[in-house]
Write a structure and sequence with these properties.
three-stranded antiparallel beta sheet, about 300 residues, six-stranded parallel beta sheet, binds adenosine-5'-diphosphate, binds 1,3-bisphosphoglyceric acid, alpha/beta
Length: about 300
């Protein structure tokens, strides 16, 4: 372990390495040059090596010195993890086994606009759950009570639903919900239909009819991509929707891809991880990949 990154200790230890040895350097993000992708810093890093192997998918959406810059000075290839990430996710996007079902959840529409836009061009069914759904409810003219809702995205939600219809994409949103009086783990709760959310109540999970609707859509899928929980899955009373979807994906014969972040954590916590084809190790990186964006840490490689 070197006590620095491109300093005398790292350089001396790198020069003394024998075949089969591994040197670990200090946390490179302690250096501002890393995140600034400083070319001189990247060149110094490269000077200690013969070849660059990037296997950090979780940071591949960053153009930093160690994730992209160094490739300007060395032959650059990916490791087995990045290879798996791009072959499984890339394969699903380019040539999916159909029907192709995408399930998107999580708190906000604004975080997932790019993903919705890209996936709507490719999928047969698009399922929206989680806090995101309430912006779509509002677009349909429903009252959403105190649910999380992005008023400035209501028009966009309308456009996305119209686009899905024009493309013949089946668009599923919750038909019932678990609503609560306050945003807390032990709040009073009840189940209501989506056009019947009472004043002063907030939707914190999908309801039982929706769990069945979504599970049925997943059951016949050839490929499933899932990103974002169906409710506030951190709290037991509002985790049932996420559990039901995780179970349906695990039980289906589909190629199943779980975007990183909270959905990956939920699948692992519930013990379904070994039933999934692929659980991405990148949160932000997998979202950008699913948006169809080029990731700098992958674009810079000569061989992938
Ligand atoms: N109905 C809801 N109301 C408020 N927050 C929600 C709701 N559904 C899900 N969330 C929250 O969304 C967060 C996860 O969203 P996000 O970060 O987009 O997912 P991911 O990390 O899987 O991409 C969780 O903290 C969860 O509690
Ligand atoms: O944990 C990570 O990303 P993730 O939260 O998107 O999975 C990576 O380390 C990227 O971190 P960054 O957002 O600080 O560049």
């Amino acid at each position: 372990m070197a006590t620095d990154v491109i300093g005398p200790d790292a350089k001396a230890k790198a020069a003394a390495l024998n075949d089969g040895d591994v040197m670990i350097i200090e946390n490179i993000r302690f250096y501002a040059e890393e995140t600034k992708n400083d070319p001189a810093f990247a060149k110094e890093l490269a000077s200690m090596a013969d070849i660059y192997v990037n296997d950090a998918f979780g940071t591949a959406h960053r153009a930093h010195a160690s994730t992209a810059g160094v490739a300007d000075y060395l032959p650059a290839v990916c490791g087995y993890l990045i290879q798996k990430e791009i072959s499984v996710m890339g394969g699903a996007l380019q040539n999916p086994k159909r029907p192709f079902v995408a399930i998107l959840g999580g708190a906000k529409v604004s975080d997932k606009i790019g993903v919705i836009n890209n996936l709507i061009e490719k999928v047969d069914t698009l399922i929206i759950g989680g806090g995101m759904a309430y912006t779509f409810f509002k677009a349909l003219g429903h009252e959403v009570g105190t649910s999380i809702c992005e008023d400035d995205k209501v028009e966009l939600a309308k456009e996305m639903m119209a686009k899905a219809e024009a493309k013949g994409v089946q668009f599923l949103i919750p038909i019932d919900n678990v609503v609560a009086t306050e945003y807390s783990a032990d709040s009073e709760w009840k189940i209501v239909d989506s056009d019947d959310i009472p004043n002063g109540w907030m939707g914190l999970d999908i309801g039982p009819k929706t769990r069945e609707l979504f599970a049925n859509a997943v059951a016949g899928a050839g490929t499933v991509v899932w990103n974002g929980p169906m409710g506030v899955s951190e709290w037991a009373n509002f985790a049932n929707g996420t559990i039901a979807v995780a179970k349906a994906v695990a039980e289906s014969d589909a190629i199943s891809i779980i975007g990183g972040g909270d959905s990956a954590a939920a699948v692992e916590k519930l013990g379904f991880a070994d039933k999934m084809t692929h659980i991405s190790t990148g949160g932000g990186a997998s979202l950008e990949f699913l948006e169809g964006l080029e990731l700098p840490g992958i674009a810079c490689l000569n061989e992938k």
